[in-house]
Design goal:
With about 200 residues, the protein is mainly alpha-helical. It has 2 domains: about 100 residues; about 60 residues, Ribosomal Protein L9, domain 1, CATH 3.40.5.50. The chain is built from 6 helices and 5 strands. A 3-stranded antiparallel beta sheet has the order 4-1-5. It starts with 6 loop residues before the first helix and ends with a strand.
């Protein structure tokens, strides 16, 4: 996929997202490219508005296109958002089976998936797992969340990544041990990438 965004390519991207169940791969710079494209169209519109009224038809045409561009990006975002929410549900239930979908996500979408997965996994443990053993659901943060950092041991290699705190971590090799923020540790543990080290 090229970095160049046009009305036609944007429409095509939306149609592919509509037609396929899987999250479609976007260029890493898609958001930046879209912003540049929208800025260009908005600048053209402002320039047309500043000229004589003989260009009123052109102004209306450009206004309509800018509105359509915004509708397309909103529709695209909401369709991808829905797929990510479904992926978070799936990831909370099957932590090992989400890696392929992550490869099609923009970094902002990966961050969203991590946060959703963490919250759903926590809720699943505090509510469902307690119900399954005949206990009243807990509506408080679990024990791990009371600590500032968590010491974990990696059970598989993890490439460098940006955490939900926007800091860069890794890369980590199998058997590496690291002290990481609570939320990041929970995600890695839920995905079976790492195990918590209990300190007696």
């Amino acid at each position: 996929m090229t970095n160049l965004i046009t009305y036609e390519t944007l429409f095509e991207i939306l149609q592919k997202e509509k037609a396929r169940k899987e999250l479609q791969k976007l260029d890493e710079d898609f958001n930046s490219s879209f912003i540049r494209y929208l800025d260009e169209k908005t600048s053209i519109l402002n320039s047309q508005k500043s000229k004589d009224s003989i260009f009123s038809n052109e102004v209306q045409k450009t206004e309509k296109q800018v509105d359509n561009i915004r509708r397309i990006i909103k529709d695209l975002y909401e369709r991808r958002e829905r797929k990510i929410v479904e992926a978070a549900l799936f990831s909370a239930r099957n932590p090992k089976k989400i890696q392929q979908m992550e490869s099609a996500m923009l970094q902002e979408e990966k961050d969203l998936l991590e946060k959703l997965t963490m919250n759903l996994s926590n809720s699943r443990e505090l509510i469902l797992n307690n119900l399954l053993v005949g206990k009243k659901p807990e509506l408080k943060e679990r024990e791990i969340a009371k600590e500032e950092n968590v010491l974990v041991k990696f059970v598989s290699a993890v490439p460098k990544f940006i955490g939900i705190d926007n800091n860069t971590y890794g890369p980590f090799e199998r058997e590496d041990i690291s002290s990481l923020p609570i939320q990041i540790s929970i995600i890695l543990i839920n995905k079976k990438r790492a195990e918590k080290i209990e300190i007696e």
